[in-house]
Design brief:
- The complex is a heterodimer of chains A (272) and B (91).
- Chain A is built from 8 helices and no strands.
- By secondary structure, chain A is mostly helical.
- Chain B is mostly helical and 91 residues long.
- Chain B has one domain: Orthogonal Bundle (Arc Repressor Mutant, subunit A), CATH 1.10.10.
- In chain B, 62% of the residues lie in helices and 7% in strands.
- The chains are: A mainly alpha (272), B mainly alpha (91).
- Chains A and B meet through helix 1, helix 3, helix 6, helix 7 and helix 8 of A and helix 1 and helix 4 of B.
Chain lengths: 272, 91
């Protein structure tokens, strides 16, 4: 084990250099491939349906895939202090932005549900609708997506504006703040997807909350790595990330496969 | 009980599914059967049927009986895949 970086910006530096480069390359390729598959599926769904709220998912997963590429680039250029810092900063900013974009889909869908659930024919709901607390809640629901989207860019940009040349410690602190933000955003998605699972009472929907729980765990493990420089926590983080993305792809495959199987069953029934 | 407002794609799907459902027993479906299954007013149902016919998803013969084209079948397949995907994503 060789530690290059006292504040541990990229935990891959905990590993022997050639092992770090080759293993990180494989992990990056796998992560980018998973993100691309998810993006393509949701982009096709968006193009077919035109549901605006779906757009956050393909853009979010594309940006997430790009952030993994920048993570790899920062590791490749770890000897160059400027490029290493630049790539690491970009990776931090766009990874958090990616999670915010994914959460945006869930926030927008929830907003549609909230609006749709109010019956204007029912006088009691009319009274509740005009209540101050409901208006405040509506306002909060409207503002929340914009706040979530703007936080990653404003925090990372302001850190750069205050000190144009961020050192290891400042980048590590920024990384800590962004990991916390990622955990909050992923926690929100986890809550929403778990609520859908409970509402639908369908075990098939368990994969997506599990996938987001894995992505949350990946960020949490990175926080542990930040504090105690533990390679075990870092390996756990990478494994949780890959498991989360793989689960997401598997859930989508199951969803598509089930639809196709139902179609075949109907066709067979028609023929007999 | 108040019915949730349906998206246009959902209405297309409901109409084509109603026709497909009736086509299990006969060659084509009657508009009244489609109206019953799609839970739409007759005028609205006819408007959507016109639109579906223009898009080449259904076919109406001289007696007004409706049948589903290959494009219509493809639409229902893609729509059910989309709904499964959205549901599985917890959206």
């Amino acid at each position: 084990m060789t530690v290059h970086d006292p504040t541990l910006l990229s935990p891959f530096t905990l590993l022997v250099p050639y092992v770090a480069l080759s293993s990180s390359l494989l992990i990056t390729i796998a992560s980018v491939a998973f993100c691309s598959v998810i993006s393509i599926y949701f982009l096709r769904s968006y193009r077919f349906s035109g549901f605006g709220y779906l757009l956050g998912l393909p853009i979010g997963f594309t940006v997430l895939g790009i952030s993994f590429v920048f993570e790899q680039l920062s590791l490749i250029y770890q000897a160059d202090s400027v490029l290493y810092h630049v790539f690491f900063w970009i990776q931090l900013a766009i990874q958090s932005e990616a999670f915010a974009l994914i959460a945006l889909s869930y926030m927008l869908k929830n907003r549609i549900r909230t609006k749709g659930s109010t019956s204007y024919l029912d006088p009691s709901s009319l009274l509740v609708h005009h209540g101050l607390s409901t208006k405040a809640r509506d306002l909060f629901i409207s503002i929340l997506p914009m706040v979530a989207i703007s936080i990653p860019l404003t925090v990372t940009m302001s850190a750069l504006l205050v000190r144009p040349f961020l050192n290891y410690v400042e980048l590590a602190d920024l990384s800590f703040v962004m990991r916390i933000f990622d955990m909050i955003i992923l926690g929100y998605i986890l809550k929403v997807t778990t609520a859908s699972l409970v509402k639908a009472a369908n075990l098939k929907l368990l994969y997506i909350p599990a996938a987001f729980a894995c992505l949350w765990l990946a960020q949490y493990s990175l926080l542990i790595t930040y504090f105690d420089e533990s390679s075990i926590a870092f390996i756990g983080s990478v494994s949780a990330r890959l498991a989360g993305l793989a689960l997401f792809v598997y859930a989508m495959y199951i969803a598509m496969f089930t639809a196709r199987r139902k179609e075949i069953e109907i066709e067979t029934r028609e023929k007999t | 009980m108040r019915q949730e407002k349906r998206h246009k794609l959902q209405l297309f799907y409901d109409i084509i599914s109603a026709v497909e459902d009736n086509m299990i027993n006969s060659e084509s479906a009657r508009p009244t059967h489609v109206q019953h299954y799609s839970r739409l007013s007759y005028d609205k149902m006819l408007n959507y049927v016109d639109e579906l016919e223009k898009r080449g998803m259904i076919f109406r013969d001289s007696n007004g009986l409706i049948s589903v084209t290959e494009k219509g079948r493809e639409f229902t397949r893609h729509y059910s895949q989309l709904m499964n995907l959205i549901e599985s994503a917890g959206l």
